[in-house]
């Protein structure tokens, strides 16, 4: 698909991977709208990159999502790419008093249910365009879990499954493609608790995404994710062990 001339919404685009993607898309002559919950963070990003449009919107709040959908329809009639990037993770061990239910509820809401809600609301706008795309940002842990983030991994596995079903469902409409970006550990605020400083830079993830969009490569195994994917084909047990080495 074209990687220039699009009008792109990135949820959670005021930091990390979302911001790196936003910057690269702007450099490639796309119109980009980013969302986040913290207005000050968004204002800082807008000062740094005045070409961006910023919108305060928590993807887990239906009223805020409804307003965003209306704003896109009114102010961005050329909107043709949705990047579901906002995510939530808890690093903890499953145990008798870990509070897994509450943590998982939060992760499932942000990483899975909110993606479904926003995608469903924006489908009419997307499918009416000559060329459109949905990009869901899942993770290497959607393929094989790391026990350091047990319920986060499960939420990303759910997102992976949903993304596959959505791709199959939309296949008869060749004007819209469904991509899944599967990064390994990335050096962002998000991953600090799980050794994220050893991860790849978010700019590398953004470069991989644009290359894959241009090549219509729908499932995008960034860096180490490609190794885990290959290992899974030959030995799922080894892939699980590799994801949990040193645990
Ligand atoms: N970092 C990694 O190692 C890694 C690896 C694989 C996959 N991923 C995935 O990549 C995505 C981005 O992660 P990241 O590392 O870039 O995180 P990050 O640096 O923490 O940035 C997250 C962004 O999302 C926004 N956000 C968080 N919750 C939101 C919500 N409910 N509604 C709207 N915006 C929200 C944040 O702004 P506010 O806080 O102001 O809302 C921020 O702009 C996530 O889906 C994550 O699961 C990350």
Could you please describe the fold and organization of this structure?
This protein has 247 residues and is of the alpha/beta class. It has one domain (7-243): 3-Layer(aba) Sandwich (Rossmann fold). It is built from 8 helices and 7 strands; from the N terminus they run βαβαβαβαβαβαβαα. It has helices at residues 16-27, 39-48, 62-75, 100-127, 150-170, 202-214, 224-234, 236-243; strands at residues 7-10, 31-36, 53-56, 79-84, 132-137, 176-182, 219-221. It has a 7-stranded parallel β-sheet, sandwiched between helices. Helix 2 (39-48) links the parallel strand 2 (31-36) and strand 3 (53-56). Helix 1 (16-27) packs across helix 6, helix 3 packs parallel to helix 4 and helix 7 (224-234) runs antiparallel to helix 8 (236-243). The chain is globular, with a radius of gyration of 17 Å. It starts with 6 loop residues before the first strand and ends with a helix. Bound molecules: NADP nicotinamide-adenine-dinucleotide phosphate. NADP nicotinamide-adenine-dinucleotide phosphate (NAP) is lined by residues 11-18, 35-38, 41, 58-60, 85-89, 110, 137, 139, 183, 185-186, 188-191, 196, 199.
Q: Key terms for this structure?
A:
247 residues, alpha/beta, Rossmann fold, seven-stranded parallel sheet, 8 helices, 7 strands, binds NADP nicotinamide-adenine-dinucleotide phosphate
């Amino acid at each position: 698909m074209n990687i220039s001339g699009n009008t792109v919404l990135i949820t959670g685009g005021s930091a990390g991977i979302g911001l790196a993607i936003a910057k690269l898309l702007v450099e490639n002559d796309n119109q980009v709208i980013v969302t986040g919950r913290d207005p000050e963070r968004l204002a800082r990003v807008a000062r740094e990159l005045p070409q961006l449009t910023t919108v305060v919107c928590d993807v887990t709040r239906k009223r805020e999502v409804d307003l965003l959908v209306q704003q896109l329809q009114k102010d961005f009639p050329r909107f043709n790419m949705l990047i579901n990037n906002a995510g939530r993770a808890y690093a903890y061990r499953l145990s008798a008093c870990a509070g897994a239910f509450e943590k998982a509820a939060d992760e499932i809401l942000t990483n899975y249910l909110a993606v479904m809600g926003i995608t469903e609301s924006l489908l009419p706008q997307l499918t009416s365009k000559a060329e459109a795309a949905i990009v869901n940002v899942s993770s290497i842990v959607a393929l094989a879990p790391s026990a350091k983030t047990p319920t986060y991994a499960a939420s990303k596995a759910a997102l992976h499954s949903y993304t596959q079903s959505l791709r199959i469902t939309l296949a008869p409409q060749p004007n819209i493609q469904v991509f899944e970006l599967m990064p390994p550990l990335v050096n962002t605020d998000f991953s600090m608790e799980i050794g994220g400083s050893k991860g790849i830079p978010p700019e590398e993830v953004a470069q991989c995404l644009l290359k894959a969009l241009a090549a219509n490569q729908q499932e995008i195994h960034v860096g180490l994710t490609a190794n885990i994917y290959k290992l899974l084909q030959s030995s799922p047990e080894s892939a699980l062990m590799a994801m949990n080495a040193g645990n």
